Amino acid sequence: MIAENISEKFGNITLFGDSIPKGYTTIGGKIEKIEENAVQILEKEYKISIENRSKYGITLHRLYERQVIEKYLEDSAGDPKRTVVFCIGGNDSDFDWKAVAASPLEAHESKTPLKLFRKELNELINKLQREGVKVAITTLPPVDSARFYETVICKIADGEQVLRFFDGDLTNISRCQEGYNLAIMETAAENGCKLIDIRSPFLMRRDYLHHYSDDGIHPNQNGHRIIAESVMQFIDALE
Fold this sequence. Notes:
Elements: H1 3-10, E1 12-17, H2 19-22, E2 24-27, E3 30-33, H3 38-46, E4 50-52, H4 60-65, H5 68-75, E5 82-87, H6 97-102, H7 114-130, E6 134-138, H8 145-156, H9 159-165, H10 171-190, E7 194-196, H11 200-203, H12 221-236
Parallel strand pairs: 1-4, 1-5, 5-6, 6-7
Antiparallel strand pairs: 2-3
Helix pairs in contact: 3-12, 7-10
């Protein structure tokens, strides 16, 4: 699909997301910006401009509380055609690992409880659609439980106590995130939003960990190419 057709179909595109769509990864334990991230690849491929309002560490709940979408609607009020893309939710599914380690036998919820995540995502979508904004949502890139536990959780909390909370099963990490991914998919379907699948292309690769940083959550340069190609397939399949 050529740039003119994209502009005609989507108008001005604004992206709300976290560190992944912002183009951050970790290299040797340090946060680094990827030279050519997925958003930049797409801008270059289709000769378009994407307003990237993504922020490192952001959650959907913070977007909701800080009325970020309301500010966007004010800023873009004069635009005749607007599209918002959400690529967010991974940080919402995360836990306060220090609190978990301090009381591993108690129940703990993710930073944004799943029920609240669904409610707030639905409300933000409805708010945008009432103002004539088209909404698209991406699925979540997968997380590798073992890498995330070893390189992130164990550096900020007592890993043995966190493992007690998991009843010895680290796959609780990826399964929890999968619950948020399913919530995204269901909410998109319920509201007639376009769903852009950037998750399956990773899951279907036997070598997908080669496309991730050593923290198990941030795709590396090769991973961003996979994300970009997934979005290209979605765009090129549109009529």
